[in-house]
């Protein structure tokens, strides 16, 4: 079997405040999600999102079902969003071949039975994905950066000048609950999602990339008045519960993918936290 998904359980914010560094990393950080010819990731009880990576190298990789789903095929009751962070490759969706370039997204809806990820012709195919439970079937759709809803925020003076590409949001493509997008920080900017926020009706996951080997991101997690940090490297992901902020600062600029699942599809539904209120 070429798929390995581990289960992680939810945490209470009062318990979280007592976690030591290693326990925080074990419960929330995904350190290695690109393993050759594998689909690797985590099934989190935070809104039952599955977060992971797909890395076909010299053979196709099939989206097989997993024990946690108790389903004959992976997408029987699920939808999946995929963003390519490597070289252009081909994804076969129930017999239809779709070419996906770097920083392009693909949405595949509930009911699709056969998904195959093919190696890149040259270089590495690195596909980051989020999958959420789904109640309806919506069509497969590829979304490029030109298709996305694009917003530029922040400033170089505040070290957070960034462009947000809303790829899988309800203003661009129809989904059940999954939302995904990508934020690119401009050179000289290092802060993301600052001012910070929380949203009680949906959890979130971050995936960091475009980081050179010598650079890292300090990702902030926890209730606004009880924060901790996780030092993260290139191609690592982190789970953020509904009660937690999700923000970070790097030793250089970088790009990250955000993904959300929950009962609310309103992108702007956030409870903002002023920087001076953080503890």
UniProtKB/TrEMBL annotation:
It comes from the Bacteria. CDD domains: cupin_KduI_C, cupin_KduI_N. It catalyses: 5-dehydro-4-deoxy-D-glucuronate = 3-deoxy-D-glycero-2,5-hexodiulosonate. One of its GO terms (molecular function) is 4-deoxy-L-threo-5-hexosulose-uronate ketol-isomerase activity. Zn(2+) binds at residues 197, 199, 204, 246. It holds the Pfam family KduI. Its EC number is 5.3.1.17. Binds 1 zinc ion per subunit. One of its GO terms (biological process) is pectin catabolic process. Pathway: Glycan metabolism; pectin degradation; 2-dehydro-3-deoxy-D-gluconate from pectin: step 4/5. Keywords: Isomerase, Metal-binding, Zinc. Its cofactor is Zn(2+). Catalyzes the isomerization of 5-dehydro-4-deoxy-D-glucuronate to 3-deoxy-D-glycero-2,5-hexodiulosonate. PANTHER family: 4-DEOXY-L-THREO-5-HEXOSULOSE-URONATE KETOL-ISOMERASE. Belongs to the KduI family. This is 4-deoxy-L-threo-5-hexosulose-uronate ketol-isomerase. The lineage of its organism: Bacteria, Pseudomonadati, Bacteroidota, Cytophagia, Cytophagales.
